[in-house]
């Protein structure tokens, strides 16, 4: 059996509260603990996701919306360029090196408006030591439900057309 998101050893054995770095094209980059992430409104999600190796999992998560946390960090959208935020990517990494990308439009209320959470609890258990977990209720597969997140980078550099 592989470890569950709450017990994955890469971050859970340190004994210290996990820290999350917000970096990239942000006016206010930040280093946040799970406790500090309670400052945003908390949302709840019941999700089921599937994985080839561990079958279907059901979990209850709670935490702030990724959109709220990243918006507060001041993404560097150019107000002059129409819909500039459509070129932004969000790179999420776990402390064990597992990583995935989202597009800004995926979580933006004007576009896909996916209710993606930075979960601070899973099945009622706090993630203060393990670190937050990405929750994507719209994903059928579990692979982007990254646990033990230690870094999120917002990147508006993808512009191959310019
Ligand atoms: N940090 C981290 N998060 C991760 C993974 C991982 O390897 N590292 N695996 C993903 C995958 S593929 C799945 S299906 C879910 C659930 O995996 P688990 O059953 O091994 O916990 O966690 C996701 N989150
Ligand atoms: Mo998976």
CATH first level: which class? Alpha Beta
Amino- and carboxy-terminal Cα gap: 48 Å
- CATH fold title: Sulfite Oxidase, Chain A, domain 2
Strand coverage percent: 25-35%
The amount of helix comes to 10-25%
- Are there runs of 5+ residues with pLDDT below 50, and where? 1-13
On the 0 to 100 scale, the average pLDDT is 91
How large is the radius of gyration? 16 Å
Outline the biggest β-sheet: 5 strands, mixed
Write a brief structural summary.
With 162 residues, the chain is mostly beta strands.
What this model shows, in words?
Residues 1-13 have low confidence and may be disordered. The protein has a single domain, classed as Sulfite Oxidase, Chain A, domain 2, CATH 3.90.420.10. It is globular, with a radius of gyration of 16 Å. Helices cover 12% and strands 35% of the residues. The chain is mainly beta and 162 residues long. The protein starts with 8 loop residues before the first helix and ends in a 7-residue tail after the last strand. A hairpin with a 5-residue loop joins strand 1 (19-24) and strand 2 (30-33). Strands 2-1-11-5-6 form a 5-stranded mixed sheet. A 4-stranded antiparallel sheet has the order 3-4-8-9, with no helix packed on it. Ligand MTE is lined by residues 2, 4-5, 8, 51, 54, 94, 96, 98, 142-143, 145-148.
